[in-house]
Each structure stands twice: as structure tokens, then as C-alpha cells.
Amino acid sequence: MKRFLDMFSKNTFNLSLQKTIPAAAAKANYATEASFETKPFRLHKLDDGPSTNVTLNREDALKYFTQLHGIRRMETSAGNLYKEKIIRGFCHLYSGQEAVAVGMKAALRPQDAVITAYRAHGWTYMMGVSMKGVLTELTGRESGCARGKGGSMHMYTENFYGGNGIVGAQVPLGTGVALAMKYQKIDGVCVSLYGDGAANQGQVFEAYNMAKLWNLPCIYVCENNGYGMGTSSERAAASTSYYSRGDYIPGIWVDGMDVLAVREATKFAVEHCTSGKGPIILEAATYRYSGHSMSDPGTSYRTRDEIQEVRQTRDPITSFKEKIVASNLVTPEELKKLETEIRVAVDEATKKAKTDKEVPMEELTGDIYATTYEPKIRNITPFNPLDHKRYGQAVNL
Ligand SMILES: Cc1ncc(C[n+]2csc(CCOP(=O)(O)OP(=O)(O)O)c2C)c(N)n1
Ligand SMILES: [Mg+2]
């Protein structure tokens, strides 16, 4: 798969925030580490699972909070840009599901790859694209990580195979990435994320079969947010125990609203895959706050009370915040300061997303191939083809 990276879109936001943290930490008497108990994991075809006792250090507490809150804020901005008609086309928000991306990324190594569906903004950010790179991509501008030519569902960066709009299609693609890793003796795993709706697709089971047959390093992650478009998983699936639906593939159910539980389950899954045992399935129980896409108000197939209740009782950011403050890893003032810094960063990225230029017309047929094997691209008729040129840098070749 060919992907193109705007070098200036690299995610430097986390780094700049982290620099400010140790100075603040030096002044106060914080706990350096704390332990928490996660909800029990449910296991399929496994004798032992991840530990329910997890430890968290202060540095990671601040990092995860920054990432969780950063994604939430960025998605709120994306929603507003869409309502202002500055983002056009598709836009599926990740709000509510942040702990899955943040928890998983915390356990992945640099050589591990990720592929997901169209709800891709948070993952793109976690895989290294800056907020500016994401938001300008959403508005189709040249600072976007695909130079504005991919948009919401088609963002990529190193080891991130994107955004995929065909429900379930990323699962066999991710299996192929894992096959390439095994073939090339790269000690990596490929995480393929899909929804509860996609979990009913035939191609998912075909991919499971090959992955187990060849013991590929695949972590299949079913992000069960309870709904596929306008249908609840209860109405659409004969079995909603997605972690057990790989039959001969081991699986783990994890509370996808708890960033630490997700991190622990992912660590376990990476170890499982890299020890040669082949694929594993994680079902992350989560929730999406917004409608399916922007045209869906999200309240015709579920009640406002249900959404409100999740916000109040299971929200991944509020619950994490409560944990890290109660255990004295951080202070509320410190989190306030981070929230302000994140707001400023998102505001700056949003401004850029509104004012940045679009790429010129002739670039629209550029960067289709990593190497220009086909110098001409077919136009709307075959008689006046357009030029193919390379503009950006190809990555993940
Ligand atoms: C092959 C295919 N069929 C149908 C669609 C239309 N469609 C887009 S998203 C979606 C629901 C998927 O739900 P789920 O997998 O639970 O993901 P979520 O939106 O909850 O993240 C459907 C049916 C599509 N994009 N591709
Ligand atoms: Mg779903």
C-alpha cells in the first residue's frame, strides 16, 4: 500500500507538552506510581489473561490524559468545522472511544502497524500526525497529512494503514500487513480494528482462517460501541460475545472505557503474537457519543438518557481523571493547565484548517503511484489524459 507523508505534519504536540511537565512536577509532592484494579477480563481459549492489577506512573498519567483529552477536543473541533460546512463529505467522530486508541498505543512498539475503519481521526493522531495535519486534511488543505486529497477516511502515516471506508475491508488488509511482517521477519504485530457491525462480515472470518492457519502476528480488535450505523449490536448479531467469535482464535473482552485495562490487554496480546502463538482477538467494550456520521443525530435508535448515562458513569476521560487525581499522581490544577494548552493547540490547528491553501489542480493526479510507472492518468475520457508526478514522499512501501 502506498501512502504519502507531509514531513511537516509530524506530531510534535505531545513532545512540546511533555517538556513543560517535569518542571511543574519538581515543585509538588506527587505520588510517582499508583496501582488500580481493572474490571475482570473475559477470556476465550486462554488459560491465563492479562493482570487486573495495573500500575501507572505519573509521567504516563499526564501523557494519557493529554492524549485522551487531545482527541476529544480535536473531534469537537472537527464536528464544528463540519457544521460550518468547512469540512465536506464524510466525517465519523471518535468521541467516547478515545481510551481504545490511547491504551493500545501505549503498549505498541514502534515497529507495530495499525489499520482501522473510517472512524480514524484519533488513531491518525496517535500514530504520529499532528492535530494540524489531521484537521487540515479534513478541510482538504495542503498541510493535511495526505495533502488534503484523502480527507476524513483516508489518512495515513508511517505504520498506519489508515482509514478505510469499506466496512470490514481493513481486516484482510491488516492480515496481509501481518503476513508481510512474518515473511520479511520483522518482529512486529499488525492491529486491525473493526466495529461490532463489521464483525458480521464474511471477509473477517476468511481473514481469521488464514491468520490462524499461518499463525500470523495479528491483533484483531473489535471496537464494540454498541451500534452499527442505526442498528444496535443486539439486533444485528447472533452472538455479541465478539471476543469469542474467532472460534479457534483466543480472545479477550476488555473494558474499552478504561485506558489502563486496554493497555494491559494489548501488552498481553503483543506478547501472545510475538511468541509465535498467532492471532488474538480483543473486544473493547466502548461507546460512541455522536451519531454514526454527521448526518445522523444519533438519537433515533437510542435514547438521550442512555448517552447521558454513559457520559456520567463510564466516560473514559472523566473516570481516568478521577483515578489519577484521587491517587495523587497529578493535581486538578495541573490538569487544568494541560486542558488550556490543548485548547490553544486545537484552536491553532483549527485556524490553519480554515485558512490553509488547497493543492493546485494539477497535483490532484499526482502521488497515485509511489514510482511513476504510469506517467499519464486517465481523465474522464481516455483522449486527454493528465500527468502523474511525485510531490510528496512515499512511506510504508
Ligand atoms: C461493505 C459496506 N457495507 C456497508 C457500508 C455502509 N456502512 C458504513 S458504516 C456502517 C456500520 C458499521 O458499523 P460498525 O462496524 O459497528 O462501526 P462503527 O460505525 O460503530 O464504528 C455501514 C453499514 C459500507 N461502508 N461498506
Ligand atoms: Mg459499532
From TrEMBL:
Sorted UniProt keywords: Oxidoreductase, Pyruvate, Thiamine pyrophosphate, Transit peptide
Domain Dehydrogenase E1 component positions: 70-359
InterPro entries with a match to the protein in the record: DH_E1, PDH_E1_Alpha_Subunit, Pyrv_DH_E1_asu_subgrp-y, THDP-binding
Catalytic activity field: N(6)-[(R)-lipoyl]-L-lysyl-[protein] + pyruvate + H(+) = N(6)-[(R)-S(8)-acetyldihydrolipoyl]-L-lysyl-[protein] + CO2
SUPFAM superfamilies found in the cross-reference section: Thiamin diphosphate-binding fold (THDP-binding) (SSF52518)
EC number annotated for this UniProt entry: 1.2.4.1
Keyword Transit peptide attached: yes
Pfam family, one: E1_dh
Gene this protein is translated from: LOC108559710
Gene3D superfamilies: 3.40.50.970
General function of this protein: The pyruvate dehydrogenase complex catalyzes the overall conversion of pyruvate to acetyl-CoA and CO(2).
Record protein name field: Pyruvate dehydrogenase E1 component subunit alpha
UniProt cofactor(s): thiamine diphosphate
Species: Nicrophorus vespilloides
